[in-house]
Amino acid sequence: MWLDEKVTRDNWINRSLPGSSLQTFLFEQQSTSSVSFDAVRRYMNVIHYHRKPLPRYFSVERLFADIRGAFPADINCKVIVSRYPSQGVLPRIFNTLEAAFRQGDVNHITGDVHFLVLLLKKKKTLLTVLDCGIVTRRPKGIGRSLLKLFWYTLPVRRCAVVAAISEFTKTELIELTGCDAERVRVVHVPLGKSFQPSPRPFRLECPRLLHLGTSDNKNLDRSIEALKGIPCHLHIVGNPSSAQRAALDRNGIAYTADASLTDDQVLEAYRDCDVVLFPSTYEGFGMPIIEGQAIGRVVVAGNVCSMPEVAGGAACLVDPFDVQAIRAGVVRVIEDPEYRAELIHKGFVNAARFSPASIAAQYAQIYRELESASK
After folding, report:
1. FRET partner for 314 with CA separation of 20 to 30 A, picked from 7, 140, 264, 349?
2. Which residues pair with 211 in a beta bridge?
3. How far is CA 342 from CA 107, 216, 227, 351, 355, in A?
4. How far apart are CA 238 and CA 223, in angstroms?
5. Model confidence at 189, in pLDDT bands (50, 70, 90)?
6. Going from the N-terminus, what domains does the chain have, and what CATH number goes with each?
7. pTM of the full predicted structure?
């Protein structure tokens, strides 16, 4: 259906639910259904379903905000944010029911809250999967089985197309669910427009290394061991544990740790560093790789999962499980200026692959296919 943004149905689609009850919402929805939707401007009504973000977890929302800003004129995109955080059974059931009554010409679950797909119209629905780590990195047991069922197996069956953000995630998803590979498209995530070249002289005597994240997969513990004896300053974005701080002190590493940075502060951290150190052990994509490349910084990254694919031959790839390999990579980018310059040059070229316009065009094409197939 092609709708005009001013008509009543569009207006209620973008509202929050009334505070009283789901019954009140259903009554209002029914009362608006009698409005005539006669001929109007041609554009497609697409719904982006977002989770209700928890503090410090806004990455998905930022990515899709950049994508929406680059959509072609015929895509009229509305954002529906779940009323409740994805915690507990009843809030998730309510969020799923809410999503079912707020559908558009195309429905797009943008990540994380995959279960919202369960009551949507299959032919009109696209699901973006960021990674499968909540299952594949979890010990076997009833909890893992339930997560697999409600976050991957059933949602994948209940949508027409799945968008995986990397070839690695696509492969992992197919292995996990057994779904048809032809239903899974690879659509990368976009690089924010604020990440622009920002040249600065390399501080050879004491380079500043930027390390983003302190969770287990971000591999800070091995990075600390690898840097022992290397003159440098380590800037950690995140809140290191007491054990990690003790290891930093024990290994004599000068460091700064900043938690809860704003977007502008994170951007400034990239600009102020000499090396982006990202030897992660698991990623569905690996945004710091292309963010560092776009700024013009040399990147040391893990050689597993999606990271080689995302790095595009423009990063120093190391075995993230080997402390000596991480150390050798850091030493090389510090001591070999020609190698460093080569990676920086290739990094600019690689980062250009991930423009919001390019990613938006890929999603727009899928939307048109779904809208056409559901007529």
Report:
1. 264
2. 236
3. 43, 31, 23, 14, 22
4. 14
5. very high
6. 8-190+356-373 (3.40.50.2000), 208-353 (3.40.50.2000)
7. 0.85
